[in-house]
Design goal:
By secondary structure, this protein is mainly alpha-helical. Helices cover 70% and strands 0% of the residues. The chain has 3 helices and no strands.
C-alpha cells in the first residue's frame, strides 16, 4: 500500500519575493486583459450596439457594485468547498462553460 505524505504550509508563513513577483505578474496580466476588454466593451456598446454612453457607464457602475458583494460571497463559498480536487478547481471547471456562454452573449447583437 502506497501512502503519500501531504505537506501543508503554515497559513501565516510569509511569501518569498519570488512568489510575490509571480502572483503580482499574474494579477497584472489579468488586470491588463480586463481593462482592454472593458475599454473595447464600452466602444462596442456605444458604437456598435447603439446604447447611450451614460447608460453604458451606469451599467458598468451597477456591475461593479454587484461585484463588490458577489466576490466576497464567492470567496466564502470557495473557502467552504471541500472536494478531492481542492477548494477552487471545481468552481473553475464548473463555471468555465457558463462563463464562456456569457462572454459570447456580451457581444451578441441579434438573438
Amino acid at each position: 500500500m502506497h501512502t503519500e505524505t501531504i505537506v501543508r504550509r503554515d497559513p501565516y508563513e510569509k511569501l518569498s519575493l519570488k512568489e510575490k513577483i509571480g502572483y503580482g505578474m499574474g494579477d497584472a496580466g489579468s488586470g491588463m486583459i480586463w481593462s482592454v476588454l472593458a475599454l473595447y466593451l464600452t466602444w462596442f456598446y456605444t458604437d456598435v450596439y447603439g446604447l447611450d454612453a451614460g447608460l453604458v457607464g451606469t451599467l458598468f457602475l451597477v456591475i461593479r457594485v454587484f461585484d463588490a458583494f458577489s466576490d466576497p460571497a464567492m470567496g466564502a463559498i470557495c473557502d467552504r468547498t471541500r472536494t478531492r480536487w481542492g477548494k477552487f478547481r471545481p468552481w473553475l471547471l464548473w463555471m468555465a462553460v457558463p462563463f464562456g456562454l456569457c462572454a459570447v452573449l456580451m457581444f451578441t447583437t441579434q438573438i
